[in-house]
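Subject: design request, 336 residues
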């Protein structure tokens, strides 16, 4: 089978019974880049699939930690810095360190359905989606007795933790998170369609997302914790980002993010932002209310994949994660 036929065999069933679905796949294989797409969406009449803009959700986190690693290499920040060095609203010598935010070991809370229910009965407070604390609430939490003494916390995935990291990096440089994104990643890689703030001249290239039931959802807006999940991008830009990591020199700042730094259980470890499994796969997935995505690579085989969908999936449904794992296995089988 040709590469195109293999990809079609693995991925084409995903779009069945999904109205206006668009699935775009990018592969890096044997030094070459390939893009495939499945689905029939009206946007394809005016925009090439390579240029369609998707919400990438938590893939934003590895952009955030890539910015961090560049700042580390430039001496602008240190992993063992206390978060209080960069925020006057947090008490001095706070025990949480920068590395803990980047590896989900800060003790900051994960997303919980129970907390969502509690918020329904609280006064209206602006909170970012999937981040169950406003910035004021988070400052109060950080100044509470919970962090009176340094502690070692187990890995616990926290949107507010990585979102806070993005804020702290911005505060340290007197810039917004989006300005950091432009300065450290977009300009570095010459990306053309990676951003957070929606401008009029780009709206025509943005595809609408869908809930699991097919209902369209409006574009995501995050104000405080943008580093956790607010980035929008294209398959073209994400392949450039993936290539930078996949082909990184040993002394490059990209490589800093790949080093395992903590055990996550289930044969997985945590780098700076990246999840690393026992096969050597370095990856992260993403989801917003209307999108799902995956990015990953195996350094030993120089194979990488990006999968973007304008549908959010139920746990019981097929997903970009499954497609990506199968695609990587297929690519590696062709190398052997």
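Subject: RE: design request

Done. Sequence follows.
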């Amino acid at each position: 089978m040709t590469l195109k036929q293999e990809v079609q065999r693995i991925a084409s069933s995903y779009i069945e019974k999904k109205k206006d679905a668009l699935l775009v796949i990018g592969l890096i294989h044997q030094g070459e880049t390939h893009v495939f797409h499945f689905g029939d969406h009206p946007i394809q009449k005016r925009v090439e699939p390579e240029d369609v803009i998707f919400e990438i959700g938590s893939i934003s986190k590895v952009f955030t930690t890539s910015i961090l690693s560049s700042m580390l290499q430039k001496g602008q920040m240190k992993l063992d810095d206390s978060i209080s060095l960069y925020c006057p609203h947090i008490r001095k010598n706070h025990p949480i360190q920068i590395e803990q935010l980047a590896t989900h070991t800060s003790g900051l809370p994960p997303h919980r359905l129970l907390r969502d229910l509690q918020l329904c009965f609280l006064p209206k407070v602006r909170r970012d989606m999937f981040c169950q604390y406003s910035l004021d609430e988070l400052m109060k939490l950080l100044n509470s007795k919970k962090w009176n003494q340094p502690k070692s916390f187990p890995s616990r995935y926290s949107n507010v933790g990585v979102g806070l990291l993005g804020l702290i990096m911005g505060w340290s440089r007197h810039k917004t998170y989006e300005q950091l994104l432009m300065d450290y990643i977009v300009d570095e890689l010459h990306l053309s369609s990676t951003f957070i703030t929606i401008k009029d001249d780009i709206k025509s290239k943005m595809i609408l997302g869908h809930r699991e039931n097919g209902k369209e959802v409006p574009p995501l807006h995050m104000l405080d914790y943008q580093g956790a999940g607010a980035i929008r991008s294209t398959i073209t830009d994400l392949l450039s980002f993936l290539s930078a990591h996949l082909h990184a020199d040993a002394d490059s700042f990209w490589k800093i993010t790949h080093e395992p730094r903590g055990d996550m259980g289930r044969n997985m470890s945590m780098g700076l932002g990246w999840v690393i499994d026992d096969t050597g796969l370095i990856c992260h997935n993403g989801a917003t209310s209307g999108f799902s995505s995956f990015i990953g690579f195996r350094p030993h085989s120089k194979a990488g994949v990006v999968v973007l969908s304008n549908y959010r999936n139920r746990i019981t449904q097929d997903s970009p994660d499954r497609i990506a794992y199968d695609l990587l296995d297929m690519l590696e089988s062709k190398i052997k």
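The two ends are 16 Å apart (CA to CA).
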